Amino acid sequence: MELFWILLFSSACPLTLGQGVYARANAQIVHSGAACNVKDDNISERIYTIKEGDTLVLQCIVKGHPRPQIRWTKTAGSASDKFQETSIYNETLRIEGILRVQGGRYYCKADNGVGVADIKSIRVDVQYLDTPVLTVHQTISDVRGSYYQEKTVFLRCTVNSNPPARFIWKRGNMRIEQSKDNGVDIYEPLYTQGETKVLKLKNLRPKDFADYTCQVSVRNVCSIEDKSVTFRLTNATTPPMIRLSVNDSVVVDPGQDVFLTCEITAGFPPPKVTWSRYPGPLPLSAQVRGQTLILRAVTPTDAGFYNCTAVNNVGNPARKNVNLIVRSKCLYLLPNDEGTDAMGNLTFQITPDSNKDSETIQMGRDLKLSCHADATPQDKVNYTWYKNGAPVFNSDSLILLRSDPDMAPGTSSLEIVDMKFRDLATYSCVANFPGSRVPELRVDVNISQNSVTPPVLSVPPGGQVVSVREGGNAELACLVVDGKPRPPILWSRVEKDVLMSAGKAVVETPDGRLRLKNVSRDMMGLYRCQTAPYNGLNIKRREAQIQLNVQYPPIVDPVFQDVRSRNYQMVTLRCLILRSNPPRLTDIRWFRNGDFIRMPMPDLKETPELKFKLEPASNGSYECRVSNSAGMSTCTFNVSAQPYNAEFYFDTPNPVRIQKGNNYSYNLQWTQKDPEATDRIIGYWVNVRKNKQSLLSKQIDLKGKEPEKGVLLSHTISDLRIPLSYEVRLAPITTYSTGDYISRIIQYSEPYTYPRPSDHVCGFEDDRICGFSQDRSDVFDWTRQNHLTQNPKRSANTGPETDRSGTKEGYYMYIEASRPRVQGDKARLLSPLFNVTSVRGPKGSGRVPYCVSFYYHMKGKHIGTLNVLLRVRSIASVDSVVWMKSGHQGPDWKKAFFDISPSGPFQV
Question: Within a 10 A sphere around the Cβ of 889, how many other Cβ atoms?
Fold first, then answer.
């Protein structure tokens, strides 16, 4: 096989560094999942096309020193999409079974604290094709329910897809073409381009009664196969019609069984019936048997609108709704004038003459009594009023209001006009559901000049301000000390738009005591208590305010700080008090390794501070414990002369060197973080491990040379086996201590060579084979040979006799694909590293195009696959397939040529 390269354009990219080798983060997004296509459009936007249900794998490859941290984010998709926490901060983002709503733009943010963070993005386009839906419609005419030959029929085919689908209509097995059949029209309705196609059958003919198939295709994008749906059109085809076994509204008592039947009265093909409910799904206990929905032992939570839908894809679906109402009654009542409960729950209001701002019952004034039952259905509640046990009827002095417009909906009122002594009596309100098993509810109230008095609201002494420690319980008291009857108390926050701890705007307490549990500091503030307008006099509300003061321990900074220093240098530790309630501190204490440090009592009004000379024995954990009457908080300092960690350098060019005996060496490079912060670093411990077993442990002596910030340090690790990878651990050493180990994995990669000018066109005529090299991480190697050096025992009827020129002396590269090779074995040949030069690419493109051309010979039944991969060395080495050919290709040499646009130096 001959390979030769034709270089058209080239370019170079400068690298900007910070101090020493410190460099800002640089990121590149590559894919390694089930991509259909990855391309760059005219505005240099990267688009990743993937099939719905496949696995999305995006890698954010980073460059920069120190090693950047990575975070993934996304826009232009479902707002509810959440990444797993394990994916957000990893180099690799993996989404199993990607959904269409997960398409959009994905961002990789790389940041290492040097300069601004680097953000790269790629747009993920999820491709899909749903099964189409075919519906049949007829024109409006006097004939209903059947299709006659003189009628026009519309077959509408709708599909969801990306990219837009292509439609094909068939009658039987024959494709329908509008240009060849005057009896049909095929068109796209407005506003549905790419989603809907209509087949119009004009003035039905006998041959139009047939099977119709709508076939949709996205032209095998992402290997998505075509889909279709078939409908049989006959003269019996009719849309569905249904009727319900019950009325539009059904009222039942709790505990009853409910049977709702949806009867099909017309429709061919036979319609399919489904039941649904609004709001919410069907109850868990619901059963669907054929066309009947069964609800056992209903409760008020089962109430709602139940929908029966019949569909046979002819005309519009038939729908019927039934409103299921489950009776319930909750009546609220406060004590009567004698102070005893008349009944369990009832809302009762007494409204004095509002026209004269009266707050008491007075002779000659009007009075209104109101009764409200909170029931379902509200309009089915029946109210009956009694005076001293006798029914009340409308008269000049007593006016009954079934639904009082001045009150809450469903409230019944009895107005007493120009009150006289004869009107002083016991009045009763009875609420019931006629014909229901729900028991009636009744409340009695005695109306006299002394039985109803305005309430008096009072906060107990010392209760205007309530203090409580965070996490404790508190009780706010706002009591009704006088008045008949005594209404409940409503609590709210004075601050605008601030809710109560239960998440409600208003909380009711029958005894006027608001009990708060597990109080937090956000609950601190003013609380308003008010008398309720019900279960008593409906007059101007009485109100008061109570301040809740939440005490919490001091908030300190820093909570934790790592402090490094040279031995025998002065160290100052400060613990800042950001907030505290109460603000007055009660104690400040310093501890080292848990032991109290004896020192003069610090000034409680000053910032806590500790100064000392760091010595080998004084390294350790220091705590500043700050207290107030609510509790204690701690600043923790890890004080040490231990050196900071080393920082591995991941951008060493060509770190691998080949050694004898199938071994390799690796040039390990690193920098030292803040080398001046601690004692002088005299060396490093390096440890090499394989499968957690130590293979090498040695000390690197710096021989008096101190590390400098941002300056690379190097050490060559030898006698590593090709193609194994190893874990390398590194720790700095000072005169007094050893730092923590950091670790990384070093991997074998084939070292690359640089081409000579003559290597851009290669015929493999010299032993150097134009700078190409065998990849030692593969299974077997390529062989350089010609007709004269062929193996006489090679497989029969395979391979070329000569090179492309036909001469016996011409060389080519050859592999044996037969025994002892097995499926999956690989032989890889690597080109030299071609650098990108300063020549610009075509207008509108930032990439430089190259033309790759070679001849190949693939003869034989088990020849396998020839792949050409592009390895770009920009931020990291990324391999991508740019050309592929599989199987027997005949007995001749064939030419392949294609363009590539690498983003940096590359190999093939």
Answer: 16
